[in-house]
Here is the input.
Amino acid sequence: MTNPITSRLQEFSASAQVALTPGGLPRIAPHSTETMARVLSLATEEGWSIRLEGRGTWCPPDAPADLVVSTEAMDRVIAVAPPDLVCTVEAGVSLASLTLALGDQGMWLPWDPPGLPDRSIGSIVATGATGALREGFGPLRDQLLGCTVVTGDGRILKPGGIVVKNVAGYDLTRIEAGAFGAFGVLTELNLRLRARPEIDRTHLATGERDDLTRGARDLVEAGIELAALELMSPVLGAHANWILAARILGPRDAVRGQAARLHDTTTLNWVETTEEQARALWVGAAHAALTGPVSIRLGVLIEGLDQTIDLLEERLDTELLSAGAGSGTIRWTGTASEESLLAVRRIAASREIPVTLERAPWDLRRTVGHFGAYREGVGGLVEKLRDVFDPSRVIQVALEGAGDEEPGD
Here is the structure.
């Protein structure tokens, strides 16, 4: 028997890819922002729940829904402006293909998110997923100049172009970064670029974790310009000891100068890697987030880095763990129960440390939530924003999590 939703979707056959998922759910991949808006408007009218997908390489495709909506058919690099170091892309373009296109023009997007290089730009932005390069280039939203988003009820919004009631004073682009699709579907993004670095070198130090984090603090205090300063657990770094990896980018003379300062500032024994070794290290760290069913990230002050890693070691483990030793961002991957994740979140909350559930099966996402309430009042703000961007709650996403509710709530 034909699925009635699939039948309704045939009206979009000229402007979208319409199919069924392996599980039999109707699936549509619009070719344009306008078609995406029509699909979401129809879903709201009909009361269909929606599961959002990019290229399907990050979160498990298991959220319960009536319809799967994908951005994978929106995969164009719309415009590149080398003199201005900016570009405009559709949300479904992969990071790998964008990197290749920009490299041909001597430009570079300094993103190294967890997962595979064929992750879509929209997925990376929606999950706020930064890697080790956050140290030198700041959070992902710092490279976002603007976006186009389709709300759950089919409105097309652009920063600066439409004033949205009840969100006055908020930067729409910054709200969308890391919202996991709760505030609409990203369809186009304007990105700030960098000139492709002349030299890219990685230096490694190995040893006891406390010694490495102490050395990292010395480097930060000395103001050495590093693109990345990443602490990696022995399993993640494929080494007998913990690893501190320092990545230096830029003109040849500047890289040499910073490397000399790196060696002079600490007592650590630094070794420069080959290009092949460096690539294996950084690619392996990105891929590691897919080797376990659960991935979380925490944001701490660098003074609290060791204490927070101790918390993870006590409540989870530290087999697949990396930490921005200068930025304070920690990423953990592995197998975890609902109880252990909620315990980590509650202890972290008492220390004013946000814990984001980046990736997990739906049951855990639903119970634990991507954000969880780590500060009083956050939940109410999120609900008000959802009232604006997805009033009918057609988009299936678990931000707060049922496990954060107190009895009687």
